[in-house]
Amino acid sequence: xxxxxxxxGLTRMTISLRPYSVKRCKAPMVAALLALGxxxxxxxxxxxxxxxxxxxxxxxxxxxxxxxxTYILRPVANNATRILPDEVFIGASNVADNLGLPGVVANxxxxxxxxxxxxxxxxxxVNSTLGLGGLFDPASKMGATAKHTDFGxxxxxWGVGEGAYVELPAYGPSTQRDTVGTVVDLVFxxxxxxxxxxxxxxxxxxxxxxxxxxxxxxxxxxDSILYDSADGYAQARLLxxxxxxxxxxxxxxESDFEDPYAQ
Amino acid sequence: MHSKTETTSMHLTRRAxxxxxxxxxxxxxxxxPVRALTVDQARQLVDKLIADINATINSGQSEEAMFGDxxxxxxxxxxxxxxxxxxxxxxxxxxxxxxxxxxxxxYQGYISRKYGRRFREFIGGKIEVMDAxxxxxxxxxxxxATLQGSAPFDLRWWVGDKSGRSLFFNIIIEGVNMxxxxxxxxxxxxxxxxxxxxxxxxxxxxx
Lengths: 263, 207
What we know:
The complex is a heterodimer.
Chain A: H1 3-10, H2 18-39, H3 55-83, H4 86-110, H5 114-129, H6 138-141, H7 151-157, E1 165-168, E2 172-175, H8 176-187, H9 201-217, H10 219-228, H11 232-247
Antiparallel strand pairs in A: 1-2
Chain B: H1 2-25, H2 39-57, H3 63-77, H4 80-88, H5 91-94, H6 97-120, E1 126-135, E2 138-146, E3 153-160, E4 167-173, E5 176-177, H7 178-192, H8 197-206
Antiparallel strand pairs in B: 1-2, 2-3, 3-4, 4-5
Helix pairs in contact in B: 2-3, 3-6, 4-6, 4-7, 6-8
């Protein structure tokens, strides 16, 4: 039940929005990016508490996402992981991760993190060749384990604050900053330089299969948050924000430290 | 929302307390707090706790039997009363002593079942203590959980002795704070029951 994995189950409920966002968002995204880039000088302050001014809208989106999960993702995932062996989903997950590596390297470079950029380039080279196009992950066995990053993290490194919490339709929990990050990662994916247009479906299929696998394998944990919690929306929000801040290496803000002995 | 104001006021209280102390005792205010518990003792506590969890998740028992074991582990190593009071949040201040006792007992069973279900997914995996360090006026013991077929993840235990015994009072899983998550959840169940602590206790016992 690694949180990252549960995320994959929880957040990327489906990725059907993908072609749609790619086509429509390019120009406004570039403008947003420039605006963010210009205002970003100092490192972002460690975010604290929960900033959710769009809660009403977010809860409506959460209800929609729950329906998508109840009627589509959950039954598909539970059946698929029962019928097909684990190796299928692990392979799909490896392929999806490997195809994401050029984007990860680009973000490492944008964050001026040369060590991780080299590390992830080597992972891509090893797994694409010895790993048979990314189906296997021999690089991890050699000690070069996954070191993920994304454009949301790049923005954070550049000093952009996380903004408000948002739950995106068919995607799940995010923040304003991470939403921009996700869209930029989709639109400017450097993988396009490596893969011809008519082969791009491979990555999309691998990603969908990987999400289905995660949803199926961590079914009980995801269910416990989405369905068994008295307020699944609030639990998912808390889980996303705390885990995301942890991933970005943001230590808990002083005012967020809860001392149960002082209450 | 209320948790935010509460932590803020706690912060102010501590600051005001520090200022008072500094005014009263001058340089003494900068002295380090006396720690009765040591970092090694905190680590040993979590080592023993993890040995018990590992023994339970690899015991091959039924789910029901495991929940009993987890409840026993929870009572032995965790400051149940403090965790329960924190989970109940502001309502703990207006609840009667009898309600608090009933709530604490119901909560103990509830959390053992809930976390027991999650720990059950650790079957065949293991948890190892990696490091321990002072944290605020407590200790943070850092462990890594390795599960079959997934990347290792970070599990931290906050240990203190303010209850009079060395006990853990919070678990942080990949940055996710158990006390915060519990306060959100118990607060939501309390809301569903119209703010009635007795109904909340009944709901927890039925879970």
